[in-house]
Structure formats: structure tokens, C-alpha cells
Amino acid sequence: MTTDSAAPTRRWRRWSAGRLATLGLGGMIGAALAILLHVAGDADLIAALLLSRASGAIALEWRTSGAASIAWRPLPRLVLTDLEARTADGHPLLRARRAEVAVPWSTLRGDAVAIESIRIDGRASDGDRVAAWWDALPPTPPSPWPRLDRLTVADASWRQAGWQVDRGTLDLRGLAPGGHVVATAQARLRSLAEGPLDDGIELVTALDATLGGDTSRPALQDLDLRAGEPTDPDLLEVRGSIDLAAGWTAALEGRLARWPDRLPALPAPFTPESPIAFSLTQQGDDPFRATTRLRLSTDGGRAEVEGRPDALRDWGDGKGGATALPPMAGTVRADALDLDGVRIEGLEITTVEPATDAATAAAGSDRR
User: 113 and 29 in contact (C-beta within 8 Å)?
Assistant: First the structure.
């Protein structure tokens, strides 16, 4: 079955995988509340009405090529198979082998809209297209989001900004403004460019935070995040906040227990076995393109750098112009450094962001 696209009526200033699932499938539930009791025996009709209403609400064409089913015990539950969302020009944004949505009986009785659970299996998403679609929506006032008690995702993949996430799992609870959000995730992350992570690394993550704001100004406050490899899940500890009110704003600090063996070695005074304390701030459209300031501290040394993750990635891929230095500015300080029997104390090195080929050519033209 196929539905027609309609003008969008909602807008958030930022996007994410969790928000797409909540707004899309969650919006379907709100659309169906008025009709479920009248067509209780026809799952395909319910699915068709849901997808049609969801298409108009968020400027996507939702379609499903599989059979739908509905159950009423222990809670009302709708299952869709072979689900797909496309933009108005036909580009696929999301595919899922199976999507299941359950609501409490109180929602069907007309109380506040709530979603007991959403489960998505076999999900594949194009993050770059999701970002482009989201940025193109007009800035109209958003509707309040429903309370979502639990979101689970299994066997998911996500591609964006030169990175690929495969075999992703997510278990998220408590998604409501002011709610206590708890989430665990595991996935294989790999770079799409040749390098130390082009064959992937397995990551596990646990998050605990308070969800502040509303649909127009969401934020993760009092964030406590742990991440690492399955054999060392607490390799990284992060605290702070992430604000999605206008793009992406992050203020984070934490500790890296050791430098991962898979990554290129850090320069002295940093050593692989030494813990590294850090603070990070970001301001921009998303975490890949945001202006990033990072401070590192370890026994005997400190560093402060500023740049953009996407520019650093392009430089590493050879797309950033013929510059020997990475596109970042910063200062590295070492209390003491031993080089070939020579001890240097109080060393400080400052770098500036190198000019690109275009900037260098323009400067030469000005001098002429």
C-alpha cells in the first residue's frame, strides 16, 4: 500500500535516530486513536489510515508491502512488516523489516496520548538524507510529543558523514519531557574511509539522563554516559548536557581510562596507559560539523585544540587540500619531555589552523 505526501506541520530544530522513530511511529498512534475501536477487526485498514495520516504529518511517504496484524491483549498492539519511509522526491530514509507499537488502554479511552512501547527490527537509515529532510521542514510550531515508555531497536544500521553503524541494538526507557531517560546500546562502528577503523570496532554504551525541554527545545541534562568495548565497557566516562534547541550544543567532561589500541598513538606527553581527563564543548548544526573545543589533561601534560570533526576527517581522507598539518588550532604543554637522552622541561607548542589551497592562492593574489 502507498500513501500520498502532504505538507509538513511539525518542526524540530534538530534530528536524531530516536526522534525520527518517536515522531514517525509515535505520530501514527495519535492518528489512529479515533478509529481503532471502529475498525478493530481490520488490521490492514488501520495500517493504511495510520500511514496516510503519518505521511501528511511529517512530510514523508510511508508505505508497507507486508501484512499488518493487530492484537488487543495484554495491550492494544499493531504490527507492520516491510515498512519504508521516503521523501517527497522518492529517496528512501528508513526501512524496517518489522515495527510493533503498543499503547495503554487509557490512551484508547481518551486520556493523554501515551505509547507503551515501540519495537523496530531490521532498521536501515540514511543519516545524511534524514538530516537534509529535517532541515527542509518549515519552522511551524510542533505538537507535544506523547510519553514513550520504551523504545527498542534490533539489527539496525545507520550511515552518516563517512561512518557506518551496523548490528545496532538500542533499549531506551522513559522518553518524556522531564522524565528520567535510561538507555543501553551496542553496535559495530566503522569508518567508510581507509584507516584504522575501516574494519570496525564493537562499542557498548549506557546512558542515564533527564530529558528537558519539549519537542521544540529538547535537551539531555544531568547526562551520565559510559562507553567502551564489550571487554571494557567503562573505558569512557562522560558527564554534562546536550541541547538540541538550535542545532547541536554540547558541554561535556569526563575521563578516558586509556587510549584505545586501535587508534593512532597520541604524541608525547600522552601515553597509551595513562588516563586522560577531558572537557569538550560543541556548537553547530550537528556533532560532525560543529565547532569543537577539546581540552585534555594527563600526568605531565595538557592540550587544547579547536576544529571541526568533519574537516579533520576530510583531511585524514586526503580531501582537505595539500596541507601537512590537520585543520585545527591548539596548544600542547609538557612538563618534561625526554628525546634521545635530552630532557626538555616546560615545553609548549602552539599551532594554527593551516590555510587551504584556495585561501593560500587568494592571499597570493592579494599580495600581487
Answer: yes
**Distance from the first to the final alpha carbon of the chain:** 65
- Which residues of the chain form beta strands (DSSP E)? 61-64, 69-71, 77-86, 92-102, 114-115, 117-121, 124-126, 147-160, 163-175, 180-191, 201-212, 219-229, 232-243, 248-256, 276-284, 291-298, 301-307, 328-339, 342-351
One-letter-per-residue 3-state SS of 251-289: EEEEEECCCCCCCCCCCCCCCCCCCEEEEEEEEECCCCC
**What is the DSSP-derived secondary structure letter of residue 89?**
T
Average pLDDT, whole number, for the chain?
79
Residue type, 222: D
Give the three-state DSSP class for 5: coil
Contact between residue 116 and residue 141 where contact means Cβ atoms under 8 Å apart: no
**What are the cell numbers at 316?**
585524514
Q: Are strands 114-115 and 147-160 parallel, antiparallel or unpaired?
A: parallel
Please state the pTM of the whole predicted model.
0.76
User: Bigger pLDDT: 223 or 62?
Assistant: 223
User: Higher pLDDT residue, 257 or 198?
Assistant: 257
Half-sphere exposure of 157 (CA within 13 A, CB side): 11
Do the strands 301-307 and 219-229 form a parallel or antiparallel pair, or are they unpaired? unpaired
254 touches 278 (CB < 8 A): yes
